[in-house]
Every structure is written in structure tokens, then in C-alpha cells.
Amino acid sequence: MRKITxxxxxxLLANIITIGAMAQxxxxxxxxxxxxxxxxAGAVSVVVKGQDNGTFTNDKGNFKITVKQLxxxxxxxxxxxxxxxxxVTNAASLVQxxxxxxxxxxxxxxxxxxxxxxxxxxxxxSIERVSAANIRNSPVSSYYDVVATLKGVDIxxxxxxxxxPTTRGFNSSGNxxxxxxxxxxxxxxxxxxxxxxxxxGLSELDVDNIELLxxxxxxxxxxxxxxxxxxxxxxxxxKYQGLSMLVKAGLMxxxxxxxxxxxxxxxxxMRWGKKVSEKFAFKINAELIQxxxxxxxxxxxxxxxxxxxxxxxxxxxxDPNYDGVNxxxxxxxxxxxxxxxxxxxxxxxxxxxxxxxxxxxxxxxNVSRTxxxxxxxxxxxxxxxxLGGSLHYKVTQNTEAVLAGYWGTGSTVYTGSERxxxxxxxxxxxxxxxxxxxxxxxxxxxxENAGESYNxxxxxxxxxxxxxxxxxxTGWFSQYSQTYLGARLNGLNNADAHTAARAQSDIxxxxxxxxQFKKSYDSIRLKPLSSGGALLLDKSDLYSAEGNYNxxxxxxxxxxxxxxxxxxxxVLNSEGTLFADSAGNINISEMGAYVxxxxxxxxxxxxxVSGRYDKNENFKxxxxxxATLLFKLKENNNVRLSYQTAYRxxxxxxxxxxxxxxxxxxxxGGDKTFITHFNFTGNPLYDYESLRKGNIVAYTxxxxxxxxxSSFEIGYKGLLMESKLLFDVYGYFGTxxxxxxxxxxxxxIGTGAIALSDTxxxxxxxxxxxxxxxxxxxxxxxxxxxxLPLNFxxxxxxxxxxxxxxxxxFVAYFNAPKYKANASFGNSGFGPGKRLGFNxxxxxxxxxxxxxxxxxxNLPVVQTLDAQVSLKLPKxxxxxxxxxxxxxxxxxxxxxxxxxxxxxxxxxxxxxNIY
Amino acid sequence: MKYIMKKIKIHLLLxxxxxxxxxxxxxxxxxxxxxxxxxxxxxxxxxxxDAPDMTIFKAAITRAGLMPTLANANLRYTVFGPNDxxxxxxxxxxxxxxxxxxxxxxxxxxxxIIPQTITSAxxxxxxxxxxxxxxxxxxxxxxxxxxxxxFPSTRNGAWVNNIPMTTLNIQxxxxxxHKVALVTAPxxxxxWDRINIDADMTYLKAAIQRADSGVVAAGTLQAALLNIxxxxxxxxxxxxxxxxxxxxxxxxxLVSIGTPLPVAQATxxxxxxxxxxxxNPLVANVLTPTTVKGIVVYHILGSxxxxxxxxxxxxxxxxxxxxxxxxxxxxSLVCTFTGPGVSAASVKGIANGTASNLIINPxxxxxxxxxxHFLNGTIHKINQVLLPQ
Lengths: 915, 389
Known about the structure:
Chain A has 915 residues and is mainly β.
């Protein structure tokens, strides 16, 4: 890493030394304003026609540009306005530009599809784009939620601030098959292995745009990105200037079905961008979200198994072995006949042996400890504070150096193998970047600190042990068993005997929220997992460097050529609480390089081929090709065809995790060091599911391979009906190979032959494995956006994702509904002075089987309605009042089993200088 | 536990002639009609006692304070209910029920109640019998889980201990009642308590003491016979049986070493005339503790058998001797029914020429010689010593 940084510095210096300054002497002053509202238009591009020379208007609409001579023609442009050409002959007076808003579809420029700017209409792969204007007009409470309204997107909501989007299936909380990049930086937490989304990263006012690439996208962006890549780009302070503020105040938890008392939602945003000179600009921004979080409150009974599981009938009153989905501590279970009662019958009271044998009809008497609800063991306060800033220096006219940092901290709830309370989680991303018209180099680091994050299941189980141990002659299960037996001997029926037994053994159980509860729980959640507590210590880091070079200026006569390379190093540091790293940090390095060539034929056909090679030090190298073809039927009507591949190295957790979860299974990584550490050669492993069915099937750990996906796609995007209707449709077919899943195995404790009883008594390991089956996916999506008169817009989209050829014993975690759809109706400006706006958005997501390590079960249909009405104030600088609601009808829903259930959020907001 | 149970004193005033039992004819036993499932809130076990032939047992239940328990629809019990005739036959007419001290009445009544619903279909016909705890806890202050047990069986009919059930499966919402031909008396003493003082068991007592010599107290046979946790059947050869065997054996030995027969017979008779022979140094090298123990444990089954539990065709059962010699074939048991009751029963040792007959007299302890019920087992007197080899 140090070496790479050294190169970077040398490179930077070389560029600074070769600064070429041009003599300029005439300064034109101008102002661009909205022709309707007469407000100054900020962030408008003003370029001298035929030259590189250009600038942006500030937040008041003013600009200043220096030219060598007059007259010149200025090109004034911004998305949502008509392009204007202004000829300036005299620099003495202010150039006043009346900028006419237009409502033309399909004008956006995207960068991510081919890593070069191109019109969204001409993207050769499926791409969606969210602009700052979309965010402004959206009814959602957080900009990140706008992504969920794009076609083909599924979202998994762990809590108010923790959401995970993906496309084309395989969603979960903390999806590892969907890359998220913030200003070019991978924002996956290196240790916890989930993309932090909007928790760390851009604050709402600093979002310039979000681009979503659906489906396989490794060829340009490297490992991961099996299902898609989300690229979030912040606002450059050279372009977006001035002080902006946005304050939202809302209300959550209302209505008869609420999870807690009504509670406020606060969201404060601030951004200040300043162009100090033509060479130097900076910005700082901050965002604070504070609320009482949504809760997981699925209290249905769950049949926990080593893999999978299912919701079953029964509750605490009717099932002594009740294990509520969102109730913790009740995972501790025992079969009291074998654990306690048989011993009573064998020695202390042999005259009761037959009686004990007949209890419960001779069937096992499984009993679980009394748990606590998620509400009782998690901090209700969710806080998210983000701080970001950057320094921008134009080394030359075409070369900009950027030093940027994003830091965030938060408390939220995340669903992994268990529900984790992420308390005071911190992550920072820091980068140094040089961006030239033709090339860029970037070095960045991600620094993660899990703070006081803890595993609620483990924590609560340990808490139960702390006030009354489960085992031992006077332990909870002994007390329970004796009371149960005594109650049965006194003639109580089975249910009443269990009730009496629980009442007796729960004597002394701390009341949730009491001083004793808090004190005791705190001592457990603050003790590391490796020392018998629930605290996750994770200070893993990522160091990365990458460079891209567009050689088109040399090769453009034949092809447009782009090359790039990257290097990543992960440093895993969990002090044995998550990874097998108690002996010291684990380093993993990855490197890769790509090349892309593109050529147009007869202005109708564009062919782009690209290839990327990546090598992870623990795995063999991997080549991923991509080919795309764009055929122009006519202007703004294009058919696209693509063959894309993607692959993913096993995640850091799939390589090195070593963590015991609720069902007493140890999740381990696939790295070969585990084989010797747990002596799998001397004391072999057996397949758990087979053994449960009575078949002894040995399992020999095999070397893990990266999983890969090949995907074909065809699509069409076109502007129809005099450019009032934007139509986009795609269909895809993909094949997954070496799909990464997990398999549970059993190892005998002690010596002797493996036996059925070892499924309960043996060591159980969940080992990552590659599936030998080729799992296939297919689906389609389509969207229509229509511009009605008077600036009204209507949009609908629908998509379908499907999985087939899944072996019956294979858990795919596909987690996508067969159909989902969005519809919206809105207007960004109507009425007097076009100051009124509104938007109504509806979302439908079909039912499906959700498969997760935490819980598996059927999810019902989800339908939500969001709405907002806004009013721009006259004569105030782009100040907007908004009143809005997400989940307006307050119909609680969840999109992963065991995750938080989301109700209505009603808010008012005031924004100043929003553009 | 031994200590606990030694403190339990149960005085019962039952003196019942076994022949009375046999006069109660049982018609329905062969069929075991399927229980009628009861729904709703009545009848309860309490209301079942409103039947006109249950007045005395109802009076006993009422006096014992158990009526609310049997009226509680949420609890589950099986009641063995003697009707008025059975109560009277057992020496418990209404006047007695109203007169005896509660300390005697309550255990007696409680011994007829099992805290779970057991229809005849769930009572096994296999041997050994299931051991069902009653609601009688003889020493609740010592352990809440202490219970005296009963031994219902559907082998050779339907029985609770050695008392026949007359009407089965009378359903209530909170359990089931089986009518019984006589009161089942809860045991009050240990096996050893009888062996220790019975004038016709002095040879067995001496043999046990010889077998226990040199053994630490906790591991002795005597300790087992005083242990509530034990569950045994002891076949006790009468003193005459021991004397006959010992005399014959010693005589044969003396003749084999050249002693004239009359002398040998007289000597042997003199030696065998007292149970002290087991501690007599003259035969100490023959009647070693190990040899004697082998013979004694061959007389003990590791489960509780009433004569009505014996098979009607001879069948071998393991004895405690199998603890030391696992492959030993054990003893062969058989019984004969005349009418509903056992009229003859025998046990045969593997080396005996003939079977040893049980001396049938089921009059409750201490009066009888068969089906003598104790806290930790049963005793049946037999007319021959069982020979294991």
C-alpha cells in the first residue's frame, strides 16, 4: 500500500509541474435565471463554444468567465432547460440569460454504463438514473429510498436507516452480490460485509445523481456486482455552490397498530459549497437523522433448524418450546426428559420412572427459556450522523485534484445470521483523486469500527444465563422440570403444568427496562463475543488504489479505447469476535485490470467489447468478458443487446468467519486453515441433513471457487409520441455457476463412530460451498414515462425475476417476488409561478418465500403509497416547503422475515437553496 | 430416601379375607370396552361419585377433603373407585369411614387416585408392571415429588395391584374412573420389616445376614430390602423348606466322606435345626457368603409381581442373580386361575426337580403368605428353596 501511495504522489507532482497556463484577459459577467420564476438558476453549465473553457453558475445564477477575445458564443445548458446559445459582443454589461424550463425526456447523461459520459438513451446496457431533481420531487423521506422506485429493484429493509437494494433477485440484508460505489469508492464495510448504503456516504443535499446498473457488471467494476451496481455521485463544489439547508420533521409510530408511542423523526441537512477561485473549491456537508426505529415484532413461533427453518403454529402460552422470530433468549432450549427428568427417575425417585416415561405421551418435552422481545433488548433510538467534505484544486484546466472524506456514525439494526444492534457503528472513507479529461487515479481507504455493536440473540441468551443459569442442579431447566413434574403429580394437565413450571423457574427474571436489567444487559453487550459476551469488535479496513485511462484521443480513429487497473487490500481485524483472527489481523489482497474497446459503424451501430482480469490472493485469477451492441433504429430509439459476465470472490466472511450463531452452529469460512484448526482430516465431517435422515455421508471440504454469472440481455429504449413518452423494456437470461451457499456438517465430539445423536451432540459447522448445479435466472422489466400537458408526469414500471433449475436440497436465497411494479403521478411545478408541486407513488411487490440465515418464511404482498405536496416560496432563494408521507396508509409491512416492520412516516420539510 | 421412608408410618386397619375378592365376579374384563369420550363440563370425577352405589367412597373422599380436587375440570386424574359393597367387604363401612382418624383415611383415599388419565387401553399387559404414582405423598415436607405407587395391569384381566377392576373406563371431563372390587391398601412397611420379624422367615433372614457379611452396609441385601427405591419380588422359602434342603445336602456330604447314613442324618438334622447354621464354623467353608448370596438373590426378582401378574403358561424371568451371571436363565413362573382369582402359583428353580409352590393366602400383611405388599416390593412364601445350579 505504501508503495502504491508513493506512486500516486509522484504522479500527482508530475502533473502539477506540467501546469500550462493560458493568457486570458476579458471577463464576462452574467446571470442565468428561470424565465418563469425569475429565480437565479444554479449549477448551470456555461461553456465557450469551440473551446475547453467553461464554468458553472453559482447558487444565485451568477457566472464569471474569462475569454481571450470577443465576440464569443456561450452555450448555456442544464438538464430540464432548453439549451441556449448566447453571443456576447460586449463584456461591459451583465449578460442576462432567460433560461426556459423544458420537460423533455431522455436527456440525462450517464457515465457508469461504459465509464464514459453518454446519453442515457444510448446506453448499451440497462441503466436507471436518479437525479437531484428526482430526489427533490420524490415523496420519500430519504434519498436512498428513491432507488426502490426504479424498475427491477427489490429492497430489504432492516430498519429505518438500514436498507439494502438489489436487482434480479438474491436480496438480503447486507447483500454481497450488489456493489455500491460512492464517488468511485466501494462502500462495503470490509468486516461486516454489507454495503453501508446511505448510513455512511452522501448526505441528501450532496447527491448529484445515482446510477443503477441492473444485472452483471463485473467487467468494468470488478468482483461483486453479480446482481448490479449502484453508483452514487456527489455534487462538485465548482458546479454546486452556496449554502443549502434542508430540515425535515416527521412523526412515526401512529395509529392503533403502532409499535410504540408516537415519536418524532428528525432529519437535518446542511451543505456548503464554495468556489474560492477558478482553481480552488471546497464543500462541507452534514446530515443528522434521529428517530425511534421501526422494530422487528414478528412474534410467530419459529421452528429453528441448522439450515432454514419455518414459521409454525403456537405461542408462548401454547408451546413450551416457543421460539418467537423477534424474541431473543428463547433460542436456548432443552429436552427436559433426557436432560433432567430421566435422572430423577433413575436415581432420586425411581418410583416415578414410569410416570416420567408417560409424560407428554412419551414424546420429547422440549422447553425453551423465556425470551425478551426485540423492543426490550435494542436501543429504540436510531441515530445517523454523516459528515463529509472535499477540497478540489484544478491543477490545470483539465486536471482536478480532489481530497475527500466521508465519515458517518450511527445506531441501527441489521439482520445477518442474527439481528445485530449496530450501536455507535462508525465508518470513514477517505480518498485522494486526480481526474483528467482522459484519465483518473484514485487511492482511498475504508476504515470501519463496529463500535458497541452486539448480537441481540447471543446477548439475550447470555443475559438469561446471567440471572439464572440454564444448567446445573438449581438451574432454570432443573427448576422448570421439577415444578413441571410436581404439577403433573398434582394432577395438573400438561399445559397448566408447563405454565406453572415457567412461572416458578422465571422467578427472579429481571423486568425489561428495570435498573437491574439494564445494568446486567450492558455488562454482557459490552463484553466481546470472544470473551463470552455479545460485543462485536470489528475494526477492519480496506485500502484501494485504481486508475483509468481513456486512450481514445490517440486511437479514436479506429476505436475508443479505455484501460484501467485496481488494487485492493483488506485488513480484517475483529479480535476473534467475527473472524478467525484472534492470533492477528488477516490480510487479503485483490488486483485487477480491464480494457474496453468501442466502435461505431455507420452511425447506427455501436459495438463495445471489454474484458477484465482479477486475482484474489486466495483464489485463482478470473477473466470476465462483456460485449454490447447498440443499434439505432432512429434518433432516440435504440435496441441494445449485451452479453455480460460477473463473478464474485467469496466474501471476507465466507473466507474467514468463525462465529457461533443461535442454533448452535458455528459459521466458518472456506479458507483451508480451518481444516487443520478444527482437525477435519483427523476427525472427519459428515453431512448434517443426510445424517438427520439416517444416512451417513462423509463430507470432505473442497477448495472454494468464485461464483460467476453469464447473462444475456436484450432491450429497447425509445422516445415516442413526439418525445412525450419514454419507453424502456428489457429481458434477460442468466446462468449462475459455482453458486456460493452454505452447508451444515457434523463432527463427532470424542471418539467412536458418527451417529444420529451427533446431529444434536456433535460440533456443527456451516461451511461455504459451491453448488455444482447451474442455477438459471430470467426476467424482464418495462417502464413508461409520459409527459402530460402542464408539466404533469405519469410513470409506471413493472418487472419480473425468476429462478429455475434449483436443486431441491439447495437453499438459493433468491428472495425476489415474481412480479413487482411502481406507478407515480406528479408535477414538479404548476399553478401560480409554477410554485406548486406534488407526487404520488405506489409500489407493489408480490409474495415470495424469503430465505435467510436468521429466518425463512413466506412474505405477503406489499403495497405502499407515498405522497408529497410542495410549495416553492416566492422571492425566497429556492426555498421549498413540503409536506409528505411515506407509507401514507400506515399499513405495516416487512420485506424480510424477522426484519423491522415499517409503518407510516409523516413529515414536513423546509429546504433552503435546494437545487 | 431410606431414612425418609423409614419415618413413614401408615397404619391401616384392613383385615380382608382374600376369598372375598374372588366372590366379585368380573364380567366385562375380556372386552375392555372403548372409553366413551366426554365433552363439555360434566360429568367430573366428583359427580361420578353421585352414583347410588358409591356413597361410602364419596363419603371417604369428602371427609378427606378431596372433593374440590376431583371437581376441578382442569386437573387430570384416574380414580380407582370401590363401590359400597367393596368398601364394606374391605372392612370400611360408612361408620368406619366416618370414625377412623384422618391420618389413616387420607392416605387410603389418596392411594386410589393417580394424577393422570389412564384408560384401560393405556395400561400395559406386559410384565413388569408400570409403576404409577398416586397422589399420596407420605412425607411432603421431605420432598414434593415423593409418591406411593400402584401397579395396574391388564394381564390376566384388569388389576390394580392384586385387586381386580370391575367396571372400566367411566369417563369424566377431568379423567377416568375404574371401579375396583376391593380397597387397595397402601403399603406401610418395607420388605425387611417383615423378613426381620416373621418367625417363619428366620432362615432367610440368617441367609441374608450371611450373604451380607463382609459387605459395607450400603451395599448389603438388607439395605436393598429397606430401600424405597427398590422394587422387588421376594420368594421366601419357609423355614421348613430350608431345613429340609440343608439336612439333605449335609447328609449327602457326610455320607460321601464315609459317615454312616443314620449318623449323617442325625448330625445333619441337628445342624440344620437352627438358622444359626449359616454362621456355624463347621460349615463355613460350604455356606460361604458368596454361595449363600447366590442362593438368596436367586429368590428375588428386580420388579414387583403379584400372583395375578404371573403368566398362565410357564415363562422364565430373570432374577437378581443375573446381575452377576447375565446368561442365567432365571426362574420359571406360572399361575392358575380358578374363576377370576389365582388359585395356585409356582416358581421353579433351574436345578429343582419340581416347582416350588406359592403358599396362597393373600390376606394383607402381616397375615398372609402371598401377594404381601410392601413399600418396596412383594413377598410370596414358597415351599422349596430355589436352586440356581
